[in-house]
Amino acid sequence: MSRAEILIQRLDAELPVPSYAHPGDAGADLYAAEDVELLPGERAVIGTGLAIALPEGYAAFVHPRSGLAARHGVTLVNAPGTVDAGYRGEIRVTLINTDAKESFRLQRGDRVAQLVIQRVEYALFSEVERLPESVRGANGFGSTGR
């Protein structure tokens, strides 16, 4: 397993640094910097008290926690959120409560999301008159199933 050094700055010294729950996990836990109550259908932007510096050629992706989704219907609005290598501000997550009846209460220090670090390619876009043929062609939504 390769490892990339990610520099972190704690903007809130009382919150834990990102950590992996189990060996081999792809996502490191991020923690909520504030208390929030989400009413049914409500969303909120929540700080994590953390800023990072990624090496060039890497990005971080903020993913929802499956346990929050399964137990409470809480997920991220813009999943996955993208943290570019040049960004140095606080990582913030936009949670939404999809439950139609129950409110959700998040406490400061609760695990709120997962951070996945990935190597990314920088694309060179070349405009052409026509794209090369492929087996799939222009078939889109729903084209692989019934």
TrEMBL record:
Read off the lineage from the record.
Bacteria, Bacillati, Actinomycetota, Actinomycetes, Streptosporangiales
Binding residues annotated for substrate, in chain numbering = R65, S66, G67, N78, T82, V83, D84
Q: What class of enzyme is it?
A: hydrolase
Its BP terms in the Gene Ontology are: dUMP biosynthetic process; dUTP catabolic process
Its Enzyme Commission number(s) read 3.6.1.23
- Source domain of life: Bacteria
User: Which InterPro entries does this chain map to?
Assistant: dUTPase (IPR008181), dUTPase-like (IPR029054), dUTPase-like_sf (IPR036157), dUTPase_trimeric (IPR033704)
How is this protein named in the record? Deoxyuridine 5'-triphosphate nucleotidohydrolase
| Molecular functions (GO terms) | dUTP diphosphatase activity; magnesium ion binding
Q: Which UniProt keywords apply?
A: Hydrolase, Magnesium, Metal-binding, Nucleotide metabolism
Q: Check the record and name the NCBIfam families matching this protein.
A: dut, PRK00601.1
Q: Which reaction does it catalyse?
A: dUTP + H2O = dUMP + diphosphate + H(+)
Q: What does this protein do?
A: This enzyme is involved in nucleotide metabolism: it produces dUMP, the immediate precursor of thymidine nucleotides and it decreases the intracellular concentration of dUTP so that uracil cannot be incorporated into DNA.
Domain (dUTPase-like) ranges:
15-145
Q: Pfam families annotated for this entry? A: dUTPase
The family database entries (CDD domains) matched by this protein are listed as:
trimeric_dUTPase
